[in-house]
Amino acid sequence: xxxxxxxxxxxxxxxxxxxxxxxxxxxxxxxxxxxxxxxxxxxxxxxxxxxxxxxxxxxxxxxxxxxxxxxxxxxxxxxxxxxxxxxxxxxxxxxxxxxxxxxxxxxxxxxxxxxxxxxxxxxxxxxxxxxxxxxxxxxxxxxxxxxxxxxxxxxxxxxxxxxxxxxxxxxxxxxxxxxxxxxxxxxxxxxxxxxxxxxxxxxxxxxxxxxxxxxxxxxxxxxxxxxxxxxxxxxxxxxxxxxxxxxxxxxxxxxxxxxxxxxxxxxxxxxxxxxxxxxxxxxxxxxxxxxxxxxxxxx
Length: 299
Known about the structure:
- It is globular, with a radius of gyration of 23 Å.
- An 8-stranded mixed sheet has the order 3-2-1-4-5-6-7-8, with helices on both faces.
- The protein has 12 helices and 8 strands.
- It starts with a strand and ends in a 7-residue tail after the last helix.
- The model has no long low-confidence stretch (mean pLDDT 94).
- The chain has 299 residues and is an alpha/beta fold.
- Helix 7 packs across helix 10, helix 7 crosses helix 11 and helix 8 runs antiparallel to helix 9.
């Protein structure tokens, strides 16, 4: 099957490679042309200009965007839209906000362009293990790209249709919110272990827990790998970014009055990780000193 992969970063590049290995014809574009040229050596058709991508595809054209959410994705859609025809399929496999998907699908439908929002999970391991893909949009478009999805996903139930426009990224958003909470629980647990009286082998414990323990998971396997590379985690700072999905999940919980304290607190903890010496912490220390005479540490 022919597909254009637009955006060849950590996810998009490996997805293109997996499609090539599956026998698909991949038209590759990236803002930095050198990345497309790398894939050309593996069998892709490298395109230098985004405006030239549609002409390199047979109709109905299938284009898959793997770009940063927000303005970057919208700009690419704005460039491509006048070059596409009724029946073409534009898929956003990044982490766009689901409400943006709903608006985009409606706007593109005016030109007969079919839009899919594909929540994609798998990270840098997806090239070998496959990607879990949650797809929203027009059902006929989903059915058309099913061969691509089957190649990208692992065997079994690795991809599925979620519903109308926005549902794919909505499910992925909640998926990432859950991920925030799971990661935070592991982080807190291992910090408690580290603060104990024993010199515990964290990598061994993580590996042990992955053998029939109720907390076993792929995330825990990655924890074991991380401790194996750096037992005391001395080479990294405890600075944790967020890419939006956790915030959106908390916002959605507020909008629908669903209590989600674990996800919310895990998000706020990420914010706290970026503060070496928070103002709020200083206020708390000052208050304890004022009402109880508790000692404070001078800066």
